[in-house]
């Protein structure tokens, strides 16, 4: 009978025998510099309204968002992703391009307070329209998504004017990346990059986000422009279109249920930095299980984020960014 002890055969367990050796041979290492912390910003001062379905995540006034950004930067987090909660909504989401809106003011304030922290701004209309859709509604009640592209472009230019390092179009409307690239270049912002939500699935994991951003559709859903969760080849097609239109970075959203897609995009587009968005539902599940003692939250989170990096993500967008950075600093 074969006996590894007797034969001296190759035994992988030798490299797991101590924490020191396990750390030495670890293949995948998390770096807080690759984390991006999403922040929801709104009007007011001193506002920290916790989102009930996302414990530990808040709607923040600009002054509070700056504090969050400073703390994250102090922990080594590489960037923040800003979402706006407007005071006023209308059918065309006109507030999205207002220079004095919360996202634009937060961008200016964070760049002034923490200039080395990357500021990324989400570009979409769903938070700003009174119907919660990413584009316009025609007189016949049908979505007219492409008609809203100029509004997306104006929003991106406004974010660039405020000092955003990257703009992140998230609507999945055909042609939005190309329209924004052309608009930024024409407005003198050819130095501002595009971090495209290139592969965004119509997922059930976005529920808590819609509580946070107050962006649930008043009717219908987004399955006509976001991807079918069953499709993988289509992800490659979407990413290729965005690269051709000028995307500097690509994103897969959600992350955990789509590790196969992360790997396929990584392999197909090796010259483009790739982000994976660990979304609100994925965060909420870990938070809930951790709070009930069903999981060791810290270990489960770091294992999850490691899986995203191992699958090929260079950048990890996660509501756990600051906590995970703190855990890494303290030692896994």
Automatic annotation (TrEMBL):
Pathway: Porphyrin-containing compound metabolism; protoporphyrin-IX biosynthesis; coproporphyrinogen-III from 5-aminolevulinate: step 1/4. GO terms for cellular component: cytosol. It comes from Rubricoccus marinus. InterPro entries: ALAD, ALAD_AS, Aldolase_TIM. Homooctamer. The active site is at 200 (schiff-base intermediate with substrate), 253 (schiff-base intermediate with substrate). This is Delta-aminolevulinic acid dehydratase. Coiled coil: none annotated. PANTHER family: DELTA-AMINOLEVULINIC ACID DEHYDRATASE.
């Amino acid at each position: 009978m074969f006996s590894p002890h007797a034969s001296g055969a190759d035994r992988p367990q030798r490299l797991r025998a101590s924490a020191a050796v396990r750390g030495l041979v670890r293949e995948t290492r998390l770096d807080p510099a690759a984390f991006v912390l999403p922040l929801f910003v709104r009007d007011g001062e001193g506002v920290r309204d916790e989102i009930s379905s996302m414990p530990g995540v808040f709607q923040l006034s600009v002054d509070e968002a700056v504090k969050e950004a400073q703390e994250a930067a102090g922990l080594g987090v590489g960037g923040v992703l800003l979402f706006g909660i407007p005071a006023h909504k209308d059918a065309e989401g006109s507030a999205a391009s207002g220079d004095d809106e919360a996202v634009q003011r937060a961008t200016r304030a964070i760049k002034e307070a923490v200039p080395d922290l990357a500021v990324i701004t989400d570009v979409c209309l769903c938070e700003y329209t009174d119907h919660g859709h990413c584009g316009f509604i025609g007189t016949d009640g049908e979505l007219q998504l492409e008609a809203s592209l100029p509004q997306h472009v104006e929003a991106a230019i406004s974010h660039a004017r405020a000092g955003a390092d990257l703009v992140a179009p998230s609507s999945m409307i055909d042609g939005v990346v190309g329209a924004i690239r052309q608009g930024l270049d024409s407005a003198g912002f050819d130095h501002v990059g595009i971090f495209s939500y290139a592969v965004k699935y119509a997922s059930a994991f976005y529920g808590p986000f819609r509580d946070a951003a107050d962006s649930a559709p008043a009717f219908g859903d987004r399955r006509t422009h976001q991807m079918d969760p069953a499709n993988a080849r289509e992800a490659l097609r979407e990413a290729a279109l965005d690269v051709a239109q000028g995307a500097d970075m690509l994103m897969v959203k959600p992350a955990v249920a789509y590790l196969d897609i992360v790997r396929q995009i990584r392999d197909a587009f090796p010259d483009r930095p790739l982000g994976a968005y660990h979304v609100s539902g994925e965060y909420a599940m870990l938070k809930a299980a951790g709070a009930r003692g069903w999981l060791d939250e810290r270990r489960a989170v770091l294992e999850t984020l490691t899986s995203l990096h191992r699958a090929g993500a260079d950048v990890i967008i996660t509501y756990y960014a600051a906590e995970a950075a703190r855990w890494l600093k303290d030692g896994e």
